[in-house]
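tool=predict chain=A
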Amino acid sequence: VMSVDNVVIVGAGVAGASAAYHLAFAGVKNVVVLDCGTAGHGSLTPVKDCTKTEEQEEGSVFQFAHRSGSAVMPSASTIKMIVRLFASSATDFIEHHGIEGAKKYIKITTSGLETEKEIASSILPNAAEQLRAFGSLYLAYEKDEAEFRKEFDILKEIGCDDIEWWEKDQLLITPGCSKKFHCGIFFPKDAIINSSVYSAALLSAATAMGAVRVVENCSPVVSVSTIPASQATCPSSFGEDETVGLTVLQDGTRMESRHIVLATGGLFTNDPNLSGIVRPCWSYLVSVPHPETTEETLDANSATFSDGVPKFSMNFFSWGFTHDWSWTEGAVRISGEDHFSALKPPRAPQRCQNLAHWTQEAYGDVFPTPEAETVPYEWQYGVYSETPDSVPVVGRTSDSSKVCYLLGCNAWGQAVLSYTATLVPGLLGYTPMTEEQSDLFELVSVRRFALLPSVLEGCK
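tool=predict ok
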């Protein structure tokens, strides 16, 4: 089976769906989006574990090894935070990219945040419930106040003009905030989105423009590459000196196209160009319901429980990058215990229990202590990706390559990927790049890894 397309996009999560939307909006036709699962969710194909440890028997199955970390929870599953925070401290980020690089990143995330909120407001079927722009609160303990204040000053210096320093008294009156923290940095424009519904809505809008077709539950992609037109199945479909993008699926399907956009997060690891620069990691998620949570209390008109805890809240993050959470549908939906390689068994029960216990301790006025009782909670795990310098990998390794990368979200990376998806029409040559786009692209370009063999080869 063979097809010829202008663009093949591998991955129908927020990055791939956003790229499809912006290509369609730019007037590009004949774009196909592939996903071995469903849009915004990823694959349900389990992975068999052939190791044997004290924790698991040989032949264990990792059910969610091929799903995004934001799309696995049976309840409150697809809540994704859209924020401007670095995946590390501002100081660490500046060590990698300099002060100007940090300013670029804030411009990128600010633009990506606003772009995603604007598009979501117009295409989500129920935007009032599926997009909640309550802001984010970055939290620190008393022992970390001096270091945290330094972080605030740096963030102000590099372009976060609207952020606010909050003292303890402000935290105590903030709905849903843990009383354990001493100070905070408030980001008023941040938001929470139902990312799976958003991905599906983007693809629906792109399809309605007559530009995109979506193939879900397809055979997994096993390779993406660039070949000479002379090796194509239909050489006459391309120019004599043109190179061609080749996408090969596990079932033997070959898809030849003028461009490939690889937007698979941490779920595609067999591209040699990505070796060492995109690392798949486990993301652990837990949902701890408020003791009063029932179908009746969630359906009630009140926005809070009897103790004043909100059923929905803003984003919360802990200084030190250990936990991020929010009250969602009457439960604390919390993520953390990250950075463990997704090429190893996830050890999810233990790590998710750690998250549940941390939640009980953080909200000691709501839940009993872990020593007294482990409260009921739902848990799951998924995959995200990290890069060595906390910035996505975007673009092509050389001018002749037909593979355009759009991955490597790192922690809290949806806003930056939403912005970089707007660059795809320009990166593929369908629209001109503005001076600002070209300038900001330098920060995320895959060619910053200048010693990659594929980048070096393109310089010859």
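The chain has a mean pLDDT of 88. The radius of gyration is 22 Å.
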